[in-house]
Amino acid sequence: MSKLDVEAVKANSQGLRGPIPDELQAPTDHFGDESSLLLKFHGVYQQDDRDARKTMRERGAGRDFSFMVRTKNPGGFLPAAFYLAIDRLADEYGNGTIRVTTRAGLQLHGVRKSNLHEVIAQINAHLGSTLGACGDINRNVTAAPFPFAAPEYAAARTAAVEIAELLTPRATAYYEIWQDGEVVHSTEAAEDPIYGKAFLPRKFKIAVAVPGDNSVDLYTNDLGVVPLVDDAGTLLGFNLTVGGGLGNTHGKTATYPRLADEFGFVPPALLLDAVKAIVLVQRDHGDRTNRRHARLKYLIADRGLAWFRAQVEAQAGFSLEAWRPLQAWTAPQFLGWNAAGDGTWFYGVSIANGRVRDGLKAALRDIVAELGCDLIATPDQNIVIGGIAPALRPRIDAIFAAHGVADPQMISVREKVAMACPALPTCGLALAESERVLPKLVAEIDALLERLGVGDPVTIRMTGCPNGCARPYMGEIGIVGVSADRYTLYLGGNPASTRLNQVFAEGVRTAEIAGVLAPLFERWSRERAAGEPFGDFCVRAVLDREKVAS
Ligand code: SRM
Ligand code: SF4
Questions:
Q1: 473: Cβ contacts below 8 Å, ≥ 6 apart
Q2: Residues 6+ apart with CB under 8 A from 88
């Protein structure tokens, strides 16, 4: 794939068609490089079972190919019919699990090529879409996921939907390929009004937070949006952040995680114009020669925020107002029962690493099927059940109990905030395990802290490579795989997720991590200021004074 000229493939794809239609018909188990690349824009990743590679090799067979299908659902919103379709498709055509992603999308893993058309057609037939879930394009727009009636939450949901609609590609063969020729958007116009022929230089990510609620991890996005309302609940406009992103490559110092800059403020009527202008400046000036240097964060870091502002204002035809001060951020979870403020209730379900399976999967299916509730996926891999009439609460409690799903109060505070990326066996870029080893690690950390009598949460985020899909560089503890069972350990993020952490130890094995942390936890329990979170303690008392290397 590395030899492929990505820019040429995109530009010559005739609206993302390329050889996909022909190859989809062919009796093979996988696609060629060009189709694989273009399929990402359709929300599809070609993968193979990495656990099976050795056996397949020994048998002289090729790879055990299957596909990951990712949905795009702005604000994490999952209408009941859509969720039920996904639940069924996971069993019929996937590996029996659904994965809630760190951008509040859903993923199916293990779909065979012969079933791909049926899966995507079914998703579209049930109010869902996979268009633009991956690829060099605007990704799923996240929004503060809690269905509060409060005006700032309503404004965040609306903004996410409007931005997603603005940036949905028009000139694509998506509907033609997956809905049997039913062309919803014209495929003749091979040049998209926003993306042109060659789309964006790289993926582009947008999140909409609510003042004080940073559950979207605002500062890790290319573009962040924060609606501001006055005391009467009237929408005043939106603060904007630009240039966040976490991906980096091990050993390449020119690549790095970067927090977004606070950029400016726009009144409500100018939000979409400002978003469009920012996307167009990245489209026209982002680096198309080096994909490792193509994200908006590098454009802003290299040319400066003042240059970027001038470009955006020239493109938009208006000036941005100054960033408006905000209250302090927190990253709430609202697990269990919460009043939405309009007479309804919502229930936050804690899902270990976003993997919906077994009793939890059955319980969610029964609740949605019986009560017709819509769900909301959260950017920390959980699910919220929304719009529940008070009288239905006992029934939901009973369904969870019948399927053996633990009340969130029974789950450890560390587990509730921990996140891991999928890594092995599906992710082709994984250098080490993540999702499969984090639960044991969290249990070890829990045991250490319980012995010390510390009941506080600590954010633990783990990935199988430095790309940063579970946003490990924001964790109070970040664990990033660099090679088989070797991890770099980062410390010093904060619970509100507004600070990057720093390298503390390198080359650590999974079995050694708890041992490396144990003396730090002991010091934290003894020396912490009242209420001081572990990440803050590390910044104050540990980092730069005590580095470990093995
Ligand atoms: Fe990611 C690539 C999974 C959120 C940074 N990511 C991948 C791929 C598709 C591997 C590949 O390219 O072959 C992974 C598929 C694994 C699998 O088997 O499912 C993958 N990323 C995920 C998900 C599922 C992780 C999760 O635990 O939920 C998340 C899907 C979100 C969604 O619904 O759209 C996911 N990825 C992220 C995030 C976090 C975020 O967006 O909030 C990041 C860091 C933020 C950022 O983008 O800077 C992230 N993923 C990457 C990168 C590095 C990008 C970069 O700028 O360097 C790659 C590799 C690439 O793009 O070349 C990547
Ligand atoms: Fe794969 Fe790396 Fe992302 Fe984990 S962080 S899912 S290993 S690309």
A1: 246, 257, 480, 490, 493, 500, 501
A2: none
Is 538 labeled as catalytic in the residue annotation?
no
d(CA 346, CA 393): 9
The question of whether 134 is a catalytic residue gets the answer no
How would you label 95-114 residue by residue, b for 16+ Cβ within 10 Å and e otherwise? bebbbbbbbbbbbbbbbebe
Q: Is the whole-model pTM more than 0.85?
A: yes
State the fold for domain 336-411.
Sulfite Reductase Hemoprotein; domain 2 (3.90.480)
Assess whether 54 carries a catalytic annotation: no
Strand order of the β-sheet with 65-70 is 44-48, 65-70, 106-111, 98-100, 355-356
- Report H helices in 317-379: 358-371
CATH number listed for the domain at residues 1-135: 3.30.70.3340
Q: Which ligand is nearest to the CA of 434?
A: 2
Q: Which of 40, 295, 361, 421 is catalytic?
A: 421
Contact 434 CB / ligand 2 (< 6 Å): yes
- The string over 338-376, giving b where at least 16 C-beta atoms fall within 10 Å of a residue's C-beta and e elsewhere, is bebeeeebbbbbbbbbbbbeeebbbbbbbbbeebebbbb
For ligand 1, whether the C-beta of 378 sits within 6 Å is no
Are 47 and 1 in contact by the 8 Å Cβ rule? The answer is no
C-alpha to C-alpha distances, 286 to 171, 241, 306, 399, 482, nearest whole angstrom? 21, 17, 16, 50, 28
Each residue's pLDDT expressed in tens, for the chain with a length of 550 residues: 457 999 999 999 999 999 999 999 999 999 999 999 999 999 999 999 999 999 998 898 889 999 999 999 999 999 999 999 999 999 999 999 999 999 999 999 999 999 999 999 999 999 999 999 999 999 999 999 999 999 999 999 999 999 999 999 986 799 999 987 555 444 445 689 999 999 999 999 999 999 999 999 999 999 999 999 999 999 999 999 999 999 999 889 999 999 999 999 999 999 999 999 999 999 999 999 999 999 999 999 999 999 999 999 999 999 999 999 999 999 999 999 999 999 999 999 999 999 999 999 999 999 999 999 999 999 999 999 999 999 999 999 999 999 999 999 999 999 999 999 999 999 999 999 999 999 999 999 999 999 999 999 999 999 999 999 999 999 999 999 999 999 999 999 999 999 999 999 999 999 999 999 999 999 999 999 999 999 999 999 999 765 544 3
**Active-site annotation holds for 17:** no
CATH class for domain 414-541? Answer: alpha beta
The span from the CA of 489 to the CA of 213, in Å, is 27
Domain positions in the chain: 1-135, 336-411, 414-541
Q: Centre a 10 Å sphere on the Cβ of residue 234 and count the other Cβ atoms it contains.
A: 10
CA distance 141 to 137: 11
Q: How far is CA 11 from the centre of its chain?
A: 27
Q: How far is the CA of 433 from the centre of ligand 2 (A)?
A: 9
Answer yes or no: is the C-beta of 468 below 6 A from any ligand 1 atom: yes
Our answer on whether the CB atom of 68 is closer than 6 Å to any ligand 2 atom is: no
Q: Which helix (H) or strand (E) holds 67?
A: strand 65-70
